[in-house]
Design goal:
Largest sheet: 2 strands, parallel
Structural class: mainly alpha
Radius of gyration: 29 Å
Distance between the termini: 20 Å
Length: 709
């Protein structure tokens, strides 16, 4: 993609406005907290302190809107405390330019590395640095700076207290993540009716898993309907695929296929019902037709072998979802849901929870994540270097230009910069456009009405309310509200409005240009790393398939934890590949060894490879089952070959799968010889493994052919 086209697409993306679900009650709660803080600051300390405390409360509320599974009060407190400390340190070092620049560089560098802990940490850290550049100009002494910092922390405390006292949709983010996962499974079941090889996006399941991570204290307070549905949803996916796949024994057409379609439709309806109940915290309302379809006795007459086992397993897992989703309704509602689940099959999910480190234990986890990114080629490290350099250059540029208010340039740059090219450029355009609109409208109101301190504070609260309400509709809309908010707030603090309007627009443009230039000069393109991402996905896919085959080789000795870990690893690698491809398509960089056609072909092959391994996982033998001879040797060959194949992909070579083909041929020869000699024949699972092992080899060979295109 050329630079001109990339700039056009990123600009269009930045100015895009979307229709999103609004959360007015949460927006009102944040605005009320801001109003309380401003009112207390005005009554006790005056406009300047009120403005500082307002920035703290404003940023604390914004932090709670970020996509995070942490409790919202914790996010508000962390944001308020970190901004208060930053303000005090910034003011103390402010009179000494070299010392302040050192602090600014270190602070922004750490804020850039904070992206290693996730987008929420990176956004909160960058926002705190940007707002610090404004708040350090308000105090007049060290004692005043300490007071301002304390009031900023107080703003975070107020927002956290309001969240605790007036909760809105408790565990709402976790409910949405789990409901999205169940809805994705329902959609998958319906698509399998028409396309037995339909693809499935693992992202909803991964988000649900991350949302389900809780501390021991949170596990005791978690709603009952969030306890077991996620695990059941993850186990349902391979069962659905196994039931629909013709390779498992159900013909493409006929009464057996019709029965499978009925089961898939019923599963989709029941999963949708559970998703709606969990999202709204309401009782589960099961469609009678879907329950009846699953209870029909024709299944045992029409299906045999693996399809029948998959149908029985699907019924049991759906009963798990229904029992978990029935939650904390009335006694009659719970009894009705339990009867519906018992009508399917009783198999209550396990009670253990997915552990997550608490707040005190989180610091070393974040430090380790940041330390892992300190290496050559890390996009997070490059982002940290860029943002620190741009902040220092922008601050010096603002001081040298004869405008005053030099902090606007570095503030704009820090706010728009992201580790990704398209987000940085689109946000730079959106910030300038939104700032221009917001400042113009706010300036027109002030110049026309000449409001005093009280009305200016009220207008600032209204702008904050609009920002909280509309922030998810588009970055440009949010920045228009922020621009007006800052104009009203600084006007309340006694700032010169004529300077604010002119300088903020020009220096915001300068900051956005600095951010864009820095990415062009010191980029972190994803395109050259596509082969590395593809090799990682191939390697994890191979280890997942090998772990599944090991289960068939030794069912009695091996647990399934290694299969679970391998599955999670391949999901992470697949999503990393998909995100890299989506990012690379918007970069003004050539493919450098991996064309779009090769990327599409290899992605399809690896998805098919993982799907075959998933079908094998759906029929793992129980602990007392007979081992499948030769499965261990094939698993070892597959593991070694995919490791070497991943290395070949990174080195721009085409992998060779001869060792896997030879291992499969030897195993088939041994199986034929064993069947001729033994009266009892091979174990029942041997034929299933042999057929799917051939499909695994076909997918690998398709991968090599696609890579060579």
């Amino acid at each position: 993609m050329s630079w001109l086209r990339a700039l056009k697409e990123t600009a269009r993306s930045g100015l895009k406005i979307e229709r999103r679900r609004l959360e007015p009650l949460i927006a009102v709660r944040g605005a009320v907290g801001l109003a309380l803080v401003i009112g207390a600051g005005l009554a006790l300390f005056g406009p300047a302190v009120a403005a500082s405390s307002a920035f703290g409360a404003f940023q604390a509320a914004i932090a709670t809107f970020q996509r995070s599974w942490r409790p919202r009060p914790v996010l508000a407190l962390v944001s308020g405390v970190s901004l208060g400390v930053s303000t005090f340190l910034g003011y103390v070092t402010g009179p000494h330019l070299p010392l302040f620049l050192l602090l600014l560089v270190v602070w922004t560098f750490l804020a850039g590395l904070a992206w290693a802990a996730g987008p929420t940490g990176g956004i909160i850290a960058a926002s705190n640095v940007a707002i610090m550049l404004v708040t350090i100009t308000l105090p007049t002494s060290a004692a005043q700076a300490a007071l301002h910092g304390a009031m900023i922390m107080f703003g975070g405390v107020v927002q956290a207290a309001l969240i605790v006292l007036f909760p809105i949709r408790r565990w709402g983010a976790q409910r949405d993540a789990l409901a999205d996962a169940l809805a994705a499974e329902a959609d998958y079941a319906r698509r399998l009716r028409h396309d037995p090889a339909a693809p499935f996006d693992p992202v909803p399941l991964m988000l649900a898993r991350r949302a389900a991570a809780v501390t021991a204290r949170e596990a005791r307070r978690r709603p009952a309907e969030l306890h077991g549905s996620r695990g059941a949803a993850e186990r349902i996916r391979p069962v659905l695929a196994s039931l629909a796949d013709p390779a498992m024994g159900v013909p493409a057409e006929g009464p057996e296929r019709d029965r499978v379609r009925e089961l898939l439709a019923a599963a989709g309806s029941l999963l949708d019902a559970a998703a709606r109940a969990i999202r709204k915290g309401a009782p589960v309302r099961l469609p009678a037709a879907a329950v009846a379809a699953l209870r029909t006795p024709d299944t045992g007459a029409l299906l045999t072998g693996p399809p029948l086992r998959a149908a029985d397993r699907l019924t049991a897992l759906l009963s798990d979802v229904i029992e978990a989703a029935e939650g904390d309704g009335t006694r009659e509602e719970r009894a009705g849901a339990e009867r519906a689940a018992d009508a399917l099959k009783d198999s209550r999910p396990p009670a253990e929870h997915h552990p997550r480190p608490g707040l005190l234990r989180l610091a070393p986890v974040i430090l380790r994540a940041m330390r892992r990114e300190v290496h050559h080629g890390s996009p997070i490290l490059r982002h940290a270097i860029r943002i620190a350099s741009v902040a220092a250059v922008g601050y010096l540029l603002g001081r040298l230009l004869p405008f005053g208010h030099g902090y606007w340039a570095p503030m704009a740059a820090v706010m728009v910069m992201r580790p990704e090219f398209s987000q940085t450029y689109s946000r730079a355009v959106a910030r300038f456009g939104g700032t221009l609109v917001g400042v113009f409208l706010a300036s027109a109101i002030v110049e026309t009405a000449h409001p005093r301190t009280g009305p200016l504070a009220a207008l600032a609260v209204v702008c904050a309310l609009l920002m909280y309400l509309l922030m998810r509709t588009g970055y440009a809309v949010a920045q228009a509200c922020v621009g007006a908010y800052v104009v009203f707030l600084l006007g309340m603090a006694g700032d010169n409005l004529g300077q604010t309007v002119f300088e903020r627009v020009l220096l915001t443009l300068a900051g956005g240009l600095l951010a864009m230039i820095s990415y062009a000069v010191y980029p972190a393109w994803e395109t050259p790393r596509l082969r590395t991402r593809l090799g990682d996905w191939l390697k994890t896919d191979g280890r997942y398939a090998a772990a599944v085959l090991d289960q068939y080789a030794d069912p009695a000795e091996r647990g399934q934890d290694d299969v679970r870990r391998a599955l999670l690893a391949t999901r992470e690698a697949r999503v990393a590949w998909q995100e890299a491809v989506a990012t690379a398509r918007h970069e003004p960089v050539r493919h450098r060894g991996l064309s779009h056609a090769a990327a599409d072909a290899t992605q399809h092959s690896l998805a098919q490879f993982g799907r075959v391994a998933m079908l094998l996982e759906a029929h793992l033998p129980r602990g007392g089952a007979a081992p499948v001879p030769g499965a261990a040797a094939l698993a070892d060959a597959l593991r070694r070959a995919t490791d070497r194949g991943a290395k070949a992909v990174r080195e721009r070579r085409v992998p060779d799968w001869t060792p896997v083909r030879e291992a499969l041929e030897r195993w088939e020869a041994e199986c034929r010889a064993r069947e001729e000699e033994a009266e009892g024949g091979a174990p029942p699972a041997a034929g299933l493994v042999r057929n799917n092992a051939a499909l695994l080899l076909d997918a690998l060979e398709d991968f090599s052919r696609g890579l060579a295109t």
